[in-house]
Amino acid sequence: MPHATEHELDEQLSGDEAETLAEKMRVFGTASRLRLLWAMRGQERTVEELVAATGMSSSSASQQLRLLRQSRLVAVRRVGRHAFYRLHDHHVVDLLEAIRSHHEHAHLAERSTASGVGSSSERAAAGR
Q: Domain 10-88, what architecture?
């Protein structure tokens, strides 16, 4: 995650900023886009490589990549007829890893609570 001093942020979100952020976060709302983003972590890839990595069709991957570029989550570099896609910056990697980490943590806490495993304080913390 970015260091707290990397950006100057107010403590509270304004209504307008919350709306803007919610709209930007909707891009993460489809499995196909998440799979494309995840496949680009740490490396630049062509559409063909992304199709092979995700099992998506070429046309579907291209449509999703267009939306990801418009949202500034993905950048493209063109060399002749080839396009190389990469995550826009380290913030996207941080977001992806945070989303997955939270999901895994919440899933483990849910399983632990359902099976009665863990102390009462652990179960209470998991329920937060």
A: Orthogonal Bundle (1.10)
Token pair 């500034």: residue? 72
Torsion of CA 52, 53, 57, 62, to 10 degrees: -110
H-type helices in the chain, by residue range?
15-25, 31-39, 47-54, 58-70, 90-115, 120-126
Q: How far is the C-alpha of 96 from the C-alpha of 34, rounded, in Å?
A: 8
For 48-61, how does the pLDDT look when each residue is reduced to its tens digit (9 = 90+)? 999 999 999 999 99
| Residue-range domain boundaries for the chain | 10-88, 89-128
Q: Which range has the worst mean pLDDT, 62-66, 79-83, 100-104, 108-112? A: 108-112
Rg, C-alpha atoms of the chain: 18
pTM over 0.85: no
Q: Give the pair of three-digit tokens for residue 94.
A: 């941080």
Q: Give, to the nearest 10 degrees, the angle between helix 47-54 and helix 31-39.
A: 120
Q: How many CB atoms are located within 10 Å of the residue 73 CB?
A: 23
- pLDDT at 119 > cutoff 60: no
